[in-house]
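Risk register update: the risk of archive-format incompatibility is retired. Evidence:
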Amino acid sequence: MSIATVSRVQRGLHGVTPATRELVLDAIENLRYRPSSLARGLASRHHGATGIVFPDLSGPYYADVILGYEGEVVARGESLLILGTHEREESSELVLDLVGRVDGLLVMARTVPDDVVRALGRDGVPVVLLGRPPVGRIPAVRERSFESAVHLTEHLLHGHGHRRLVFIGDPSLSPDVAERWRGFADAHRRAGLEAPAPVLCRFREADGHDAALRALSEPARPSGLVCGNDEMAIGACGAAERLGLRVPADVAVTGWDDIPLARFLPSHLTTVRQPTRELGATAARLLFDLIGGSSLAESESLPTELVVRASCGCTRNDDSRHQEVAPT
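Archived output:
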């Protein structure tokens, strides 16, 4: 009895005589046979799973993106494999290994270089990028960082009269943070000012704290700190307090992401709200389109909102102003 005959019986297909079908069903019952999903995936090249590659899984931003992505995956009855690269030297090899176990891949930020992404595309692997620019014809899902950063910086320059602002964060470590820095610098240029060099640091609360300590200890102390994300901004507020400075009376502090904690800080953090869950969900939908054979998948850019609270110097302590930023 052939494997094909057993397969046809299991799937309820025609082309099997009643007597043979009865023999197969009896054998399945007696042997308590259950089909192997792994073997079926290898044979059909369908794994019923997608993969997502992140720098690491710490922090509220990543958790929210994954929730949005996972919601789409679960709705389709699929599985999700997550790989945190943690800047390991073998990150590219780990990603290539993951490709053999999934139907498609979502790659976040600079977890692997562009040449690896291009190689995946040439091999026919469905790939969507998140938080980084498109690579060739491989689509990306991003937030609108540049316009929001211009808007936020102009709010500080023109709305509050600041002339000594400093950007906290390392643009070289994240394409999105690079766009925020570019918007910060462009807003200064439009105002006839030269933006000082960013105070370089990574993106955790402790990093923002140390970077803000350095900036606020300079002889020409900045009057405002524009932080690359909310975690750094929380650290910056702690640094100001450590130096005996009040936020915003002595120094304005702004963040990015609008994590839940932002609205509950004593200074009520002014920030930019990005649709983190929708970023993940949009990326998942785009990836499933590619897996399904769509040739029309295109990059998407999602809008963001400037959320004005008290840490910039405004008098209201709640989400008083929401301003969606459209592309310029």
